[in-house]
Amino acid sequence: MKLTRDEIWSYVHAERRALATVLADLSDDEWATDSLCAGWTVKDVAGHVIAHPQTRLRDFRDAVPLLIRAHGSYSKTIYAQGKLVSDRPTAEIVADFDRLDGSRGHPPGTPVRFALIEILLHTQDIALPLGRAHAMPPVAAACAAGLVRPLASSMGVRHKVSGVRMVATDVEWSAGKGALVQGPMQQLLLAMAGRPADRTQLDGAGVAVLPGP
């Protein structure tokens, strides 16, 4: 599924606004709730999400000491950065979503689709543990899937998604070879990104190998 840059940014901005609406009325306990990202609370993920449009080249240089302390581990470096950017009052994090509304900033050297992946998945990382349903736009999820699937190995699920054929039932999208898994694009994207998919919405012989509750 191909979208223009303008179309991608339109989805990114709409999804950020939707997430900001969720964050605006969270209680202290909800901010402290564990997200779907291991070791990160809802607050950590929210801080990471809104740090994304503010990332500049100098931030990569500043991350070098963190990378060294993490013994070269990219995932541990991102974890440490996430903790740093979220170490501030929740009101400031929420205010940043408003201040950066419409921003097209994104980390240097990353494709625009990465901004779409970030907001689609991290919104679910926050919403699902809180019991807040938020539907991904199927077209946006299909666009993101084209980049997420090749990254499955870095998300620890390549061995699970490489042996199945995924077919969306709400948008024209399919990928892979093997046992069939079909269902809403949102659930397919969650599965290929290592998040727990709602298996009650999926059909096919390949469902059994996917991440899920």
Automatic annotation (TrEMBL):
Domain of life where this protein originates: Bacteria
Organism annotation: Rhodococcus tukisamuensis
One GO MF term: metal ion binding
Domain Mycothiol-dependent maleylpyruvate isomerase metal-binding per the UniProt entry, residue ranges: 12-99
NCBIfam families: maleylpyruvate isomerase family mycothiol-dependent enzyme (TIGR03083)
Protein name in the entry: TIGR03083 family protein
